[in-house]
Amino acid sequence: MRFAKRGDENQTKLPATSARPANPCGARSAVLIFLFTLCFSAVVSVSESANLRANHAPRRSQQNGNSFQRNGDIPAPYDVLKKGISHNDYLAPILELKANEAQYLASEPMRESYLEAMTLLHSYVGDYQLAYTYEDKLLSSFPGLAKVRERNAKDLLMSPIDSYQPRRALDAIASIADKRQVIMINEEHRTPVHRTLTLELLPVLYAKGFRYFAAETLDEKDTELSERGYPTQKTGFYTADPVYGDVIRSALKLGYQVVPYEYLRDCQPKPDNPMSCQDERERGQAENLVDRILKRDPNAKIFVHVGRSHNAKVNYQGQFKLMGWHFREISKIDPFVIDQVRMSERRNPVDEDALYRYATRKWSIKEPTIFESASGDFWTDDKNIADVRVFQAKAEYVNGRPTWLRIGGQRRAHALDLKKLNLHVTDGLFKGPKPLLVQAFFDGENADAIPIDQFILHPAEQIPMLMLPPGAFRIRAIDESGVVIGHYKLTTR
Question: What is the mean pLDDT of the chain?
Answer without folding.
Answer: 86
